[in-house]
Specification:
By secondary structure, the protein is of the alpha+beta class. It is 22% helix and 24% strand. Keywords: Calcium, Chitin-binding, Disulfide bond, Glycoprotein, Membrane, Metal-binding, Signal-anchor, Transmembrane, Transmembrane helix.
Length: 267
């Protein structure tokens, strides 16, 4: 129904010409605006970057709906660090959650979104295949020193027809930051857990180093390792970022987060 065919509407016969014209103008305006309202109210955020672009500025839990995961899931959004818009995919902070888990747990995700958690390989894949993403890793040691590593290229299972069968391989590159690059060695590697060995070592790196990661032979980082407190006598089995603190210092805090790649001017 539009303003132009309003005069032929039986229910409005008997209305004055002025009222019909006014009502018709209002109806035309509603018809014009409806698609715009649909776009603004009906479009759902694909990630925390979309939420930031829509005006959200508070850190916290939000629902996102990636293109290839339309049912959506909850994530923690960091809206303050380095321009905001980050979707958190991993956090370690107090040792309250067991990270020495099997493949199914790492695929589906575990933990508490507001605390220690792993978002899930399936969810990380759904996010990162939507476009070009960057990764930021924030680190803190037990002396309260902080550092970060940022990668202008990031993806999980980007070129996989069946990412689960293919092992959710890592794509990462274009490092910047002050923590040193402890992830490039893992570029192209499949994810390994204690019950699924996809690494290039004779041993299962996940079992040997008490974690789960994109191990090669074996690692320069191990952010899903066991929660030890600083210096430890065991070798490389804690929350390690070797280029910053070596292989025998387990970090107090780590947080991995991704967002759509931005132009340098918009950061």
């Amino acid at each position: 129904l539009t303003g132009t065919n309003l005069k032929q509407t039986p229910a409005l016969r008997g209305w004055s010409k002025r009222h019909v014209l006014l009502f018709g103008a209002m109806l035309d305006l509603i018809n014009f605006m409806s698609p715009l309202f649909h776009l603004s109210l009906g479009s759902r955020p694909r990630d925390c970057g979309d939420l930031y672009a829509s005006g959200q500025r508070e850190d916290g839990i939000y629902s996102v709906f990636p293109v290839h995961h339309p049912s959506g899931f909850q994530v923690y959004c960091d809206m303050t660090t380095d321009g905001g818009g980050w979707t958190v995919i991993q956090r370690r902070e107090d040792g309250s959650v067991n990270f020495f888990r099997g493949w199914d747990s790492y695929r589906e995700g575990f933990g508490k979104i507001t605390g220690e958690h792993w978002l899930g390989l399936k969810q990380i894949h759904a996010l990162s295949i939507q476009g070009n993403y960057e990764l930021r890793i924030d680190l803190e040691d037990f002396e309260n020193s902080t550092a970060y590593a940022q990668y202008g290229t990031f993806g999980v299972g980007l070129f996989s027809v069946d990412p689960d069968d293919d092992g959710y391989p890592l794509t990462v590159g274009d490092y910047s930051g002050n923590a040193g690059d402890s992830l490039l060695k893992h570029n192209g590697m499949k994810f390994t857990t204690k019950d699924r060995d996809n690494d290039h070592s004779e041993n299962n790196c996940a079992s040997f180093y008490h974690g789960a990661w994109w191990y090669r032979n074996c690692h320069t980082s191990n952010l899903n390792g066991q929660y030890l407190r600083g210096q430890h006598t065991s070798y490389a089995d804690g929350i390690e970022w070797s280029s910053w603190t070596g292989w025998q210092y387990s970090l107090k805090f780590s947080e991995m987060k991704i967002r759509p790649t931005r132009d340098p001017e918009s950061k």
